[in-house]
User: What shape does this take?
Amino acid sequence: MNELPLPRESHLKPFPLLSVQRAIAWAVWVGVFLVSYNHVSRGGAREALGPRVFIPLLVTVFLGLFAFFYWRIRRWAGTYHQGVSFFSAGDEQEASHRFEEAARRATQGVQRAVSVAMMGQCQLALGDTGRALELFGSAERSGKLRSVPAMHRWIPGLIATARLAQGDLASAHAWLEEGRKRSGALPPIYALLPEVALLCREGNPAAAMTALDARAGEADALVGRDARRLKLLRAFALDALDPVRHAAAIDAALASLQPVRPGDFEFLSARWPELQAFIERRGLLRAA
Assistant: This one.
């Protein structure tokens, strides 16, 4: 598999194990702890303040630290879930902005990895494969997605889709295989679109239709742009098999993908002349 790129922005790169800010923060906390422990162990603080003041002070400090860290986690979670809401509503651009802000607010490696991975999915949906691969590369190299099993399993399918759109079929195959390894006995996730596209692109529309029919549940689970792209591939495969015999099914598939949005199909057809010719012949560019 080709090495994935990384984004230039520091807040989108894998969460550093040690940073200057974190080192300074830890140094301050350790210093405060040592000074406090040394003072308390001698009884100075307890004698000076008395138990009625000293114990509530300790509880207040503890609760203050707990509230601070809880607030930071809630602050990240709120922004992340805003991104999820926008993504579910089909507004990938705004969702991408929210996920990027969540990555900035992340306090742990896992938080940043899932935020960056979701931002990559938004960019992929918008057709920016180069940016998507940078973000997926960051999430992959962090190694943190292993603690989020579902996301760890579906990332390879998205990477395969991006590589396919760039015309790198060998890398797309390799990432699909990686996705199968991660899924094990579980059904693959986000793999149907790149698998069907590869079969069609490599001149095997019959196998593409077999996959679509056998995995109808997976196809029905797709929404938005990916669902429309898969319906386009169904029509393309049927047309490649026999345009006269399957004329009704082709028309039905094309009708079901309306309304077409700008950018829906250029993503797949940019480096795929046959698909581009089919889109033009069927007047889908005019619909967009």
Q: What stands out?
A: The chain is about 75% helix and 0% strand. The radius of gyration is 26 Å. The chain has a mean pLDDT of 84.
